[in-house]
Structure to design on (318 residues):
């Protein structure tokens, strides 16, 4: 059972508000491509290609979408320009479906052989990693799960301090050894503590730096090896947090981190403060890693489980 439950009216309103800047930018650009046009022709498609690329959908994904629309134009002979929004909406929805982007009822958090489910969170500094962990802990706790946090980002004192504040705010225990401690040692202690407390889920923060990929890979590999000694198969989820407001830079970070470790879930944050929400489409298509969460506001409940349908509906709603 998905711990977030059904997509409530409150969450829908939060999503609509969070995507407002992206939506206004996106729809206004599309509207300009069909001014004075009665049907979808080569000029409209050329303009649409530019709209998608400048909306941070990405070149490869844009070309894929345009190719699909060209096939429809060829098959149906005449497509009215006023149909462009609905056609584009359908093709983006199909694309997300094909590429296993997450869905509202597809994920649940359950113990693994009676042991805590382990999430290791990675991402560069400033993307909202610690905030995402705090909001995740809140969501799990609200669903009746027992949560333990591990402050293994010991490279920055502020990272440990921020996570302590979130643990107090949410009301969940935290394992930390302060700045400069061995991250693997913190992870080991966090998992041992989670086992002792019979916790459902443990969330491990890690250092947010990418300036040296070899060192990053070595550190993350060590943390994984140590955790697996405590809980076989851990971490069960490696969640990469990306800042949606950075557009294509977020996509580049996703590629770099995927080379450093085995990411199997994504969280795209800060979508409420940007018009670059189209990056979610490109990342879903190109990375073949499910977007599991999106951040659409600063409130503690504004981290949502990503729903393909709701995202596309909101993006194209007038």
């Amino acid at each position: 059972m998905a711990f977030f439950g059904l997509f409530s009216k409150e969450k829908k309103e939060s999503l609509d508000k969070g995507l407002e800047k992206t939506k206004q930018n996106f729809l206004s650009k599309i509207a300009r491509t069909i001014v004075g046009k009665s049907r979808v022709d080569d000029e409209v498609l050329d303009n649409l290609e530019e709209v998608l690329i400048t909306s941070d959908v990405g070149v490869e994904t844009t070309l894929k979408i345009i190719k699909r629309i060209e096939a429809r134009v060829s098959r149906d002979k005449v497509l009215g320009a006023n149909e462009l929004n609905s056609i584009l909406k359908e093709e983006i929805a199909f694309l997300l479906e094909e590429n296993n982007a997450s869905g509202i009822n597809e994920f649940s958090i359950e113990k693994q052989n009676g042991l805590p489910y382990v999430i290791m969170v990675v991402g560069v500094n400033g993307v909202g990693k610690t905030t995402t962990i705090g909001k995740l802990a809140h969501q799990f706790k609200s669903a009746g799960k027992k949560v333990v946090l591990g402050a293994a980002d010991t490279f920055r004192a502020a990272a440990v301090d921020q996570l302590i504040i979130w643990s107090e705010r949410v009301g969940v225990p935290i394992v930390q050894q302060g700045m400069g401690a061995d991250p693997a040692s913190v992870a080991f202690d966090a998992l041992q503590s989670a086992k002792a407390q019979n916790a459902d889920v443990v969330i491990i923060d890690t250092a947010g730096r990418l300036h040296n990929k070899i060192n990053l890979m070595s550190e993350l590999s060590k943390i994984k090896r140590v955790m697996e000694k405590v809980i076989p198969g851990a971490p069960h989820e490696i969640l990469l947090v990306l800042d949606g407001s950075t557009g294509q830079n977020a996509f580049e970070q996703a590629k770099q981190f995927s080379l450093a470790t085995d990411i199997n879930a994504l969280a795209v944050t800060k979508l409420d403060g940007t018009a670059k929400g189209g990056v979610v489409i490109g990342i879903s298509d190109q990375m073949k890693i499910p977007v599991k969460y999106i951040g659409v506001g600063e409130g503690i409940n504004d981290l949502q489980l990503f729903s393909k349908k709701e995202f596309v509906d909101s993006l194209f709603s007038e």
